[in-house]
Amino acid sequence: MESSKEFKALIRECHKAKERAYCPYSNFRVGCAVLTEDGTMFTGCNVENACYGLAMCAERNAIIKAVTEGHRKFQAIAVGTDIKDKFKGPCGPCRQFLVEFGECDLYMVKPDLTYMKFPHDLLPMGFGPADLLAEKI
Ligand SMILES: O=c1ccn([C@H]2C[C@H](O)[C@@H](CO)O2)c(=O)[nH]1
């Protein structure tokens, strides 16, 4: 996967998406690129608002675009910030969003375009679709 043309494009597109972040309040740019099962790519950036609580993360914007266009299965997702080394990964709500669409490879992209793979257990003991199907009283 990591040596494929598609993967290289994923890293590049994630970086480019970060350039489009609208974050005048936090000045914290985030970009995301999602590679779907069939090789289609979607990107997202964070979009903030004067009403601060309305800020929407890059990851959720990218996933919402993919799902809206009919893609629910992902091969890989890349998330990039301007942090040099210590970006610990997506925020809680974005982890919940990612869990909804199943396991896929997640990469953190540094400003110099180097990347690292994220551990698979994004949301230990997380609530997911299966919980809604569990036997109830
Ligand atoms: O995983 C994350 C964490 C934060 N942000 C955005 C939200 C806000 O615009 C800014 C600062 O929290 O970064 C993301 O896009 N993704």
TrEMBL record:
<keyword id="KW-0479">Metal-binding</keyword>
<comment type="similarity">
    <text>Belongs to the cytidine and deoxycytidylate deaminase family.</text>
</comment>
<feature type="domain" description="CMP/dCMP-type deaminase">
    <location>
        <begin position="5"/>
        <end position="130"/>
    </location>
</feature>
<dbReference type="InterPro" id="IPR016193">
    <property type="entry name" value="Cytidine_deaminase-like"/>
</dbReference>
<keyword id="KW-0862">Zinc</keyword>
<protein>
    <recommendedName>
        <fullName>Cytidine deaminase</fullName>
        <ecNumber>3.5.4.5</ecNumber>
    </recommendedName>
</protein>
<dbReference type="InterPro" id="IPR016192">
    <property type="entry name" value="APOBEC/CMP_deaminase_Zn-bd"/>
</dbReference>
<dbReference type="Pfam" id="PF00383">
    <property type="entry name" value="dCMP_cyt_deam_1"/>
</dbReference>
<keyword id="KW-0378">Hydrolase</keyword>
<dbReference type="InterPro" id="IPR006262">
    <property type="entry name" value="Cyt_deam_tetra"/>
</dbReference>
<dbReference type="InterPro" id="IPR002125">
    <property type="entry name" value="CMP_dCMP_dom"/>
</dbReference>
<comment type="function">
    <text>This enzyme scavenges exogenous and endogenous cytidine and 2'-deoxycytidine for UMP synthesis.</text>
</comment>
<dbReference type="InterPro" id="IPR050202">
    <property type="entry name" value="Cyt/Deoxycyt_deaminase"/>
</dbReference>
